[in-house]
Write a structure and sequence with these properties.
Blueprint (H helix, E strand, L loop, with lengths): L7 E4 L9 H14 L6 H10 L2 H12 L3 H15 L10 H11 L1 E5 L5 H8 L6 E5 L12 H10 L6 E5 L2 H10 L2 E5 L12 E3 L23
Amino acid sequence: MADFHFINAIWDFDGTLFDTYPAMLRALQETLQEFGDKTDSDALYKEIKTTSIGDVLKSYAEQHNIDLQALHERMDVLEKKYQPETPTAYPHAREILQLVSDHGANFLWTHRDRSALSFLTTEGMSELFTGIVTASDRFPRKPDPKAINAFIAHYGLDPAVTVMIGDRPIDVEAGKNAGVHTIFFDVDGFGDSSNADAVVSDLGQIQNYFLDQGKGETDEGTY
């Protein structure tokens, strides 16, 4: 991986750029408890990081014959209650976003709704992104690669210098399905590399994989 030098980064949001999981986990656990579940928070956290909150809710709804929309709606209410107006960005998030923006382009693909853009705007980071896809855009969920493919087609990205960065196996799988490179952010220390091209435990380590040349000097088709 040390020989790879990237220009474009496609980022996950929750658990990759911002530490939003404490509030999401609390909302999810309380939602499931209201519907009769008693899952331990540590076990639940590992499950949602291995798969996704959407998968957990879908599985629970199917197992207990509960309306999935009702689960989603209740969790949304609780997350808005517990999520800070300005969630904490991970250390070095702004610096690496600026670095990539200076030499290439950042893109965001999140299962979160447009609140992701609101959080980025509040932190002054939204201008560092060339393109953003949220749940509101109705793309299939990860690991389906259609959102990444749309970025590639619309912006003329070269997959050889483009990398998907995320904290879950589905982020890595989505990147691989789209034919781009992958970096797994092992923020929890679970040690699951998910067969990513690289694994980092700190966002600052990502800068080693990006070119230090000026924007547009190599990836002429991108801009």
